[in-house]
Amino acid sequence: MADEGVPSRRLLDTLLDIRTVFDPRSALTLTLREAVEVEGRETAVSWVALPDPAGGLVIEHVLGQRTSELESLDVHQGQGLTGRVFEQSCIHWVEEYAEAISITHEFDHIIEAERVRRMIAAPLSIEEEVLGVLTVGRRDAGPFAERTIAHIEQLAQRASFALGIARKSRDNAAAAALAERRRISEEIHDSVSALLFSISSRTEKVHRRAANVELACELETLQREVAEVSGMVRELIHGWHASATTDLRAEIQGAVDDFQHRTGIEAIAVFLGAVPPLDAARIEAVTRFVAVTLANVERHSTASRASVTVAALPNQLTVAVSNDGPVPSEVRPGIGLVGAEARIAGLGGSVSVVDDDSTEGFTIRARVPL
To answer: Which ranges carry the GAF domain (predicted)?
Structure first.
């Protein structure tokens, strides 16, 4: 195999190109191309599998295949080599695929059709979150050289870095777009709604003083039309905001960014695991909980730092809002959070205070079943 340093530097330079920052597909395609070149175009096939909402993986990028069986293939956690690496989040390889006992063999017919003899797979991960799996199959026999294993692991690490940048860029863009929609909604509410209310009030006063019956009727009609327009504006604002409330990650990041900008208190949002798709009711309930709890930190705490931690478990979403301020002398869950707590309770969830003398600061946690 040629010197690894030159292609590795070339790949890193390419992955850091601005196009790959906003287009993870480019980064993955380049990674597959490099992986195939490392092993040999005629004897290797490589693919990247990415998570799907159901909790497994879907093979979305393939290079060097001889059949179409690998494309869009669903892989559940633990299935085959790719599923095993996704589940255990560590590199693994088999040098005699057909006889390997460390993996399951649901896809033997596909691997046989591809004439693959041995395989190696590495996780694409950022901060302990697995973003996908890079897999390379060889059509010849023999053990993997140590430098080949190290190179595949490096490729996976660099692709992970590119995917992480791309996701962070998308998250920031989504949070910024959501904040702008909220700003415009509030501006419309504060200006147009207030003006319509003023017009309605003045029309009502004139209507009461109108002596002419015909004029009184006209004023009454005008009142109804102004009320109708006011209702339309309210529905428009509500609908516009509701349509934006589809990305919990962006919602929470936006709330944290707004809190930090407004208060000057250092704040951070931490996401442990991929946030699963949620219905509007759950997104609204969790977003309201975070917003109200951060508002309480602003009003009632002397904190210098705050954090919102979101942990996605198989059957539950946990959201903890913490700050480094002192614990109140009397803590009764629900005070100041009645509305938010009611929303979460209506979904079968709960809100509680984390009572742990071993930790500093104050944490309120919400659990929402999925």
So the answer is: 23-163
